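ESCALATION

Customer reports they have been waiting on this structure for their group meeting. Please prioritize. Original submission:
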Amino acid sequence: MDNRPDGGKRPSAASDTELLRRIGQDLRSIYADVIRQPLPQRIQATLALIDREQRLGEQLPRTLPH
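Update from on-call: job pushed to the front of the queue and completed.
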């Protein structure tokens, strides 16, 4: 006999599995919405600067160590 204070029964493993499935669906939905958002202008500018510096670095001749 279960003596839980609320008088209820312990949820079954199936309900735990269903709860986890629903949480997973909600998280996927939230992350999908975040990914669809445009990048803020400051981040776009920073990424463009990084790309430009990487391209310039690739164009410079590499020196061999002595």
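Sent to customer with the following note: The mean pLDDT is 83.
Escalation resolved.
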